[in-house]
Amino acid sequence: MKITKQQLRKIIKEELEEAMGAHIPGKEATLDFLRDELGSWQPSALARLSDVLQSERFDLTEDILDIIGGALEHDSPSYETSAEADLAKFQKDRFSGR
Q: Which residues in 39-65 are b (16+ Cβ under 10 Å) and which e?
């Protein structure tokens, strides 16, 4: 499963709106949110996101890649899940209000 730049922007915007109401914060608040959010992702999902961001750049790309790199350093490199399982977990968590 490939995440497009537009899909990632939409997900980030929706998550920010849900977490902080209609007020969209500045870059530092966005990066703080992404550090927390991406820190909870599975290593395989982080690796796939990293691959997408390497090829499709936008304003926060370097900052997000740094967050992913830090999160991956703390996780076991041997743990792998499928893209379908990662997506199902993300959707379940998102719709259950976690």
A: eebbbbbbebbeeebeeeeeebeeebe
Distances (CA, A) of 40 to 15, 35, 68, 85: 14, 9, 10, 15
What's the pTM? 0.36
pLDDT, tens digit (0-9, with 9 covering 90-100), for 4-46? 888 888 888 888 777 766 565 577 788 888 899 999 999 999 9
* Dist. CA 10–CA 15, nearest whole Å: 8
DSSP state letter for 86: H
Question: CB-based contacts of 87: which residues, under 8 Å, 6+ apart?
Answer: 1
